[in-house]
Amino acid sequence: MRGKFYDEKSVSLFEIYKKKREMNALTRKIPTFHYEKSNLLRLVLFTAVFDLIFINLYKPFSSLTWYPVSEFKFFLFSSLVILTGVLVFLH
User: For residue 18, what are the CA distances in angstroms to 11, 25, 28, 32?
Assistant: First the structure.
């Protein structure tokens, strides 16, 4: 039959079952705790704090040498960038 995703003669029953199970996984509903407002807010806040700590400890691409700023100014500027990203995401 042309409409099926398998040929009955050349595919085992296990492979058919596996394919049907994969297709079923795409139609399942997402659990509600994944998109509750409190959990999303925690995720955004955790990500913002993690970003702030990471950027200020790691200083990617030697970004402190781009402009002659102190450590405190670098912290403030990176905080503003992260805050802008959080506000864009929450809007």
Answer: 11, 11, 16, 26
Per the confidence metrics, is the pTM higher than 0.70?
A: no
Residue 36 scores a pLDDT above 70? yes
Burial of 37 (0-12, 13-18, 19+ CB in 10 A): exposed
Q: CA nearest 82: which of 50, 35, 41, 58?
A: 50
d(CA 30, CA 36): 11
Asked if residues 19 and 6 have their Cβ atoms less than 8 Å apart, the reply is yes
CA atoms within a 13 Å half-sphere pointing along the CA-CB vector of 69? 14
